[in-house]
Amino acid sequence: MPKRILQGTVTSDKNDQTVTVLVERRFKHPLLHKTVRSSKKYRAHDAENQFKVGDTVRIVECAPVSKTKRWTVLTEDAAASA
């Protein structure tokens, strides 16, 4: 099964080798037929501590790194930051 890749914004980089990424998704409400925004925070492994608050990054699923970390930062999304 392929690994999921999500795109989001770094909201916290206070922990060592960890960033918190806010991923927002949009979908059409089944009953109201209105576009709804839903967001979720993921904690991702950042080995070099290179990503800062406000960066747009891509994260990919991985094996558990710690109790809460199940994602790894793949790259910084250059298109969104430019």
Q: What descriptors fit this protein?
A:
single chain; 82 residues; mainly beta; OB fold (Dihydrolipoamide Acetyltransferase, E2P); five-stranded mixed β-barrel; 5 strands; 5% helix
What does this molecule look like?
This protein is mainly β and 82 residues long. The protein has a single domain, classed as OB fold (Dihydrolipoamide Acetyltransferase, E2P), CATH 2.40.50. The chain contains one helix and five strands, in the order E-E-E-E-E-H. Strand 2 and strand 3 form a beta hairpin. It is globular, with a radius of gyration of 14 Å. The model has no long low-confidence stretch (mean pLDDT 93).
Q: Into which percentage range does the β-strand content fall?
A: over 45%
CATH architecture: Beta Barrel
Question: Which CATH class applies here?
Answer: Mainly Beta
Helix/strand order: EEEEEH
CATH fold field value: OB fold (Dihydrolipoamide Acetyltransferase, E2P)
Query: Main sheet?
Result: 5 strands, mixed, barrel
Taking all Cα atoms into account, the compactness measure Rg is 14 Å
Tell me the CATH superfamily: Nucleic acid-binding proteins
- Domains (count): 1
Distance between the termini: 33 Å
What structural class do you assign from the helix and strand content? Answer: mainly beta
| Arithmetic mean pLDDT | 93
Unreliable sequence segments: none
GO molecular function: rRNA binding; structural constituent of ribosome
Family: Belongs to the universal ribosomal protein uS17 family.
Organism: Paracoccus isoporae
Protein name: Small ribosomal subunit protein uS17
